[in-house]
Amino acid sequence: MEKDLYGICPYVTAQKLLTGKWTLLIMYQLSLKKMRFNELQRALPSLTQATLTKQLRMMSDNGLIIRTVYDQIPPKVEYSLSELGERFQPVLNAIQEWGTEYIDFLKGKSS
Amino acid sequence: MEKDLYGICPYVTAQKLLTGKWTLLIMYQLSLKKMRFNELQRALPSLTQATLTKQLRMMSDNGLIIRTVYDQIPPKVEYSLSELGERFQPVLNAIQEWGTEYIDFLKGKSS
DNA sequence: CAGGATCCTTCGTGATACTG
DNA sequence: CAGTATCACGAAGGATCCTG
């Protein structure tokens, strides 16, 4: 089973963590700045509250992001990248670049 | 819908393409050398034929890899990275590095 | 504002059997 | 050797309603 390779093979491990359909997008948003729950929702309009909540919890459990709760009324919760999340930046950059190239490729195809 | 961003946002686009549970692994394998169907299967033991076939077809359709059929008996089919696939290398490298760091993080946690 | 709790559907993944 | 064809399942994702 590939599960055995989680925590062993870098690729299997990374894939597991990035599995979420939105993980990459959230990582990107948070790499720009720390954000509150509603800010994220506005940045990712096609994502429902429930899903966003689950994703954030997963990412928090995995140590990718940090959840900071300010004990006040109205409630305020901020999400930011953890140390590990920050180190993810190179991947983000590489993906952005490659994604852009891929989009160009798509355009060339359709025209 | 986020579908609208496919072909527009690099991250959405990349995430779609890397969605498959095995895409990253296959990309890595093929980045080492072109491989035949059975070679890939041996390299990824926990992956069934059916699934591998589907993944390869998807990746081929997406232009990530190239499928070369040698018309002979017994059949021989080789898979290799396309131009676009080659350009994916930086992402692969970044992921490998980050994945390794993450594994270290996991170890530190459990101990 | 930032969720929690449910319910439901879709899609990816896998098992198995068969083929040129 | 390199697939194709079916069937089935589980989990991720989403819709909706409710709360401190």
From TrEMBL, chains A, B:
Domain of life of the organism encoding this protein: Bacteria
The UniProt record lists the keyword Transcription regulation: yes
GO molecular function terms attached to this record: DNA binding
Gene3D superfamilies tied to this protein: Winged helix-like DNA-binding domain superfamily/Winged helix DNA-binding domain
Keyword Magnesium: no
All copies of domain HTH hxlR-type, residue ranges: 9-107
InterPro entries in UniProt: ArsR-like_HTH, HTH_HxlR, WH-like_DNA-bd_sf, WH_DNA-bd_sf
Keywords, comma-separated and alphabetical: DNA-binding, Transcription, Transcription regulation
Protein name (database record): HTH hxlR-type domain-containing protein
Taxonomic source organism: Desulfitobacterium hafniense (strain Y51)
